[in-house]
Design goal:
It is a single chain. The protein is mainly α and 507 residues long. It is 74% helix and 0% strand. It is built from 21 helices and no strands. Helix 4 crosses helix 8, helix 4 packs parallel to helix 14 and helix 6 runs antiparallel to helix 14. The longest helix has 48 residues. It is globular.
Length: 507
């Protein structure tokens, strides 16, 4: 089969159809998104299944689809660890976070943190932490969008990133959580169907014998049988363990995921949402594993998909897109490309809404005392525009990074700054405001600082010859450090006075 063309008419047509449909949804949602409850949480009346599908849509990001499949294509088994790590964080959300967070919060996870603590300083920290995590997660989505559109739609990378930013601003500014939810649900259904089609067509090339696919992948990959062994973990076990900790605990600290637990009517529905999200993402990553090794077997040895020097055209992030063309031609490639782009739009919309909520609700309303509901919603919309501009600039600055890798760094920061505070605030009565702020600040600053001076940014982005801190991500050090500081400072300071009913936050 011939190589993928530089611009794909089917992809462009399907993408425009998706954009048109979702803009109509946004217009309809804008008629409802006038109050805070509707703008932030879609009124809080989503069913567990619909919310679980939307969470899965939020979680099955460009990093999951393009980045993980690209890593598997490049390094094999080690790339699979990202997918496994993304999934194993869900049981922690299910058993430790979902129900308690829904009982205690209303719009953002800072609502739950501040129940038994001093509200203003906790909300200021939560907003700063949320925006930091969102920034790193946003980088991955914008980079994936730029590379995808550059390869398939014939647009320059910069124009592609700007296009995503503009569409994301429209979704959130006018439609709020209602529009964002429906964009995520539609995208999740399309992505699952598209991944299933590519998986089945790939397996059909080997008479549905997965062993034959693996044998072919081993034969054609430059590293041969080494792609089935954990080479990176063997060479650097500390970084491998650190990555596992980041992915396992980071899910429970992602602001745009936590925010979705407030879109259901009660704690039971929040637990049900996690169950459906876990089920759907688990199935999805099983298909991503097949897609990654399928790209090794069918795409890597085909010169039609190679650029000068033998690398994949568009970079490793485009392995799944090339495989869809190899097994299904222009039409399937067009569908997968459009869905991948829709994936990016949906996830970026969720991230933007979480960031805007942190600014308008946690800072402006609860810290600075802006109590007028309509004014708060207006501030959120202005914040959306600002976050959109920042996302475009970040996408342009980090265009060479692997999207799965950048999300791994976001997970490390979420695991270090947000997860310890959530667990302690909801399960340990001795936590004090000073302890929470100290632990959270140490977790955030250490995770961010060590990430900046680590290999991903210090060497690959800033161009220095060697990193100051050798491990990426730094979660192995920063997560226990945040817990230890929060507990130690809490024990050394005056215990907070708990309001009546505070025991509901504790086991």
């Amino acid at each position: 089969m011939s190589g993928a063309p530089g611009a794909n008419p089917a992809a462009i047509s399907l993408f425009l159809l998706f954009v048109a449909a979702t803009l109509v949804i946004t217009w309809l949602a804008s008629r409802r998104a006038q109050s805070r409850a509707v703008f932030y949480t879609a009124g809080g009346d989503l069913s567990a299944f619909r919310n679980g599908l939307a969470i899965a849509g939020d979680y099955m990001s460009a990093a999951a689809f393009l980045g993980v499949s690209g890593l598997i294509t490049t390094i094999g088994f080690d790339g699979m660890l990202y997918g496994i790590g993304f999934v194993i964080g869900w049981p922690i959300v299910l058993f430790l976070v979902a129900e308690r967070l829904r009982r205690l919060g209303r719009f953002t996870f800072a609502d739950a943190l501040s129940v038994n603590l001093s509200e203003k300083p906790v909300r200021i920290f939560a907003a700063i932490s949320s925006l930091t995590v969102i920034a790193f997660y946003m980088i991955a989505q914008m980079v994936g969008a730029g590379q995808l559109v550059q390869l398939l739609f014939g647009l320059d990378y910069a124009y592609a990133v700007i296009l995503v930013g503009i569409l994301m601003i429209c979704y959130v500014t006018f439609g709020g959580m209602v529009a964002t939810t429906w964009v995520q649900i539609i995208k999740a259904i399309l992505l699952l169907c598209g991944a299933l089609a590519v998986t089945l067509l790939t397996l059909a090339q080997f008479s549905f014998d997965f062993s034959a696919l693996i044998d072919r992948a081993v034969a054609v990959h430059p590293r041969h049988a080494a792609i089935l062994a954990p080479a990176a973990i063997s060479a650097d076990p500390i970084s491998g363990l650190s990555l596992g900790i980041a992915l396992m605990f980071g899910t429970s600290g992602l602001p745009h995921i936590l925010m979705r637990f407030f879109t259901v009517p009660d704690a039971r529905a929040a637990r049900g949402s996690v169950f459906f999200a876990c089920l759907l993402t688990g199935v999805f990553f099983l298909m991503v594993f097949v897609i990654g090794f399928g790209a090794v077997a069918l795409v890597l040895p085909d010169p039609a998909y190679q650029a000068a020097g033998g690398a994949l055209r568009g970079g490793a992030n485009m392995a799944a897109i090339h495989l869809s063309h190899a097994v299904g031609g222009d039409v399937l490639m067009g569908f997968i490309a459009a869905v991948a782009f829709a994936t990016i739009l949906a996830v970026v919309a969720g991230l933007t809404l979480a960031g805007a909520s942190a600014i308008s609700h946690d800072l402006c309303a609860r810290v600075f005392g802006i109590r007028d509901e309509r004014r708060e919603v207006r501030i959120s919309r202005v914040a959306t525009v600002g976050i959109g501009v920042a996302a475009i600039l970040l996408g342009l600055a980090f265009r060479t990074q692997n999207v799965a890798y950048m999300v791994g760094l976001a997970f490390a920061i979420a695991a270090s700054a947000n997860f310890p505070l959530l667990v302690l605030a909801m399960g340990w009565r001795r936590l004090t405001t000073a302890g929470a702020l100290a632990g959270g600040t140490v977790g955030l600053v250490s995770a961010l600082g060590l990430t900046i001076i680590g290999p991903a940014i210090w060497v690959k982005t800033l161009g220095y010859p060697a990193p100051i801190f050798p491990y990426d991500p730094p979660a192995l050090l920063t997560v226990p450090l945040a817990f230890a500081v929060a507990v130690a400072v809490s024990l050394m300071t005056q215990p907070a006075r708990y309001p009546v009913g505070a025991d509901a936050a504790c086991p």
